[in-house]
User: What shape does this take?
Amino acid sequence: MKKLLPCLLFFFLLLIPIESKNPAFANDRVTIKYYFEEELLSSPSALIGSNVSSLSYATVKSLLKGREVDLTPGTLYEWRIGSPLGEKTEGFVANADTDLYYVPVATGEKRFVTYRYDYLDENHFLSETIEYPYGADYSVPEKINGLPIHPILYKTPDYGLTPNNELRKPTYLLSDLTVYVATQADAVYTVDGVSRHSAYGQKPEVPTKKDHEAVGFFTDPDCTAPYNGPAVNGLTLYVLWQKTSYTVTISTENETTELTLPINDPVLKEKVLPDGYEWTIDSEKITLPYAVDGDVTITGTDPKQVAVSGQSELQKKSISKDEIIAVSIIGVAFVAVGAYSLAHFLINKKKKQTKSKKSDQNES
Assistant: This one.
C-alpha cells in the first residue's frame, strides 16, 4: 500500500489543469493598429480567435478630422495587412498583434447617382444622372433637370406610400445609386379625362360624385388594372364608381327640395313629404310608400287647385247663355238676309216674265 501512494499522488497531480503558455488557448487579447500614411488612426484590442473587420471609409474620414492628412475624393483605398505593400484584406481572424494600412490603389474614380421622377413604369420615366468623385461628401441637389425637388430620397417609385421607403443618405458616395425624388411643384395628371393637381408623390386626390363613392383608381377605361401608386406628372387614371344613393327632387308650387335615399333602403314614405299634396311622377299619380329605382322628380299638386283647374277647363269647353243668344241673333240675321234676297229674286223674276208676255201680245 505504501508503494501505491506515490503512484496515486502522481496520477492526481496529472489531473490538475496546468495553465497553457500557448496564447491560442489562453484568454488573452491582441492589439490591432490601423494606419494611414504612417498616421496611427486607432489601436483597439481584440479577443484571440475573434473576427476583425477593417474600418470603413466613413470611419477613417471621421478619425482623420482635425489632422493634417485626409482622404482624397476620387481616390480608391484598400486595407493592406502587415505593411502598405501587404495582402489586401477586408477582415481576418485575430491571432496576434496586427498592423493594417489604408493605401490608395486607384485615382480618378467616379460614382453616379441617377435621380428618377415622373415614373410610370420601367419604360416611361424622366431622370438625370449626376457624376461625383468617389468618396465625395454627399448632399441631395436642389434641382433635377431644372426642377426644384424635395431633399428626400426614396428607394422605389412608391415614395411615402410604402413604409420604410426613404433611403438613408450616404455621408460619402462609395457606390452608384438609383433613387427616386419628388418635385416641389404639384403633380399634374388626369382622372376620367379631367386635369387634376395633387402634391407630388402623394396619393392622388379622389374626386367626388353625387350619390356615389369611389371604389378605386385604375389605369384603363374598363377599370381592370388597379392603381395604388402616387401622383406623378403624366399619369392617367380612371375611377370606378359605386352608386350609394338616389336623389329625389320634391317639387311643389312653393319650393323645390332634394331628398337622398340610400340604395339599400330606397323607399319613399309619406312622412318625408309635405302634407296636402297629390304626388305624380311624369304626370302619373303614385301612392306612398313608393320604391325608388333611380334619380327621380316627384311633383306635388294641391288637390283644391286640381279641382279648380278642372272646373276652369269645363267652363272653357261650355258655351254661356249670352254666347248662345249672340249666336242665335247672328243666325236669325243670316236667315233674314237670305229670305229677303230670295224674295227679291223671285219678284224680279216674275216681273220679267210679265213684261215678256205683254211684248209677245203686241207683236201679234
About this structure: The radius of gyration is 54 Å.
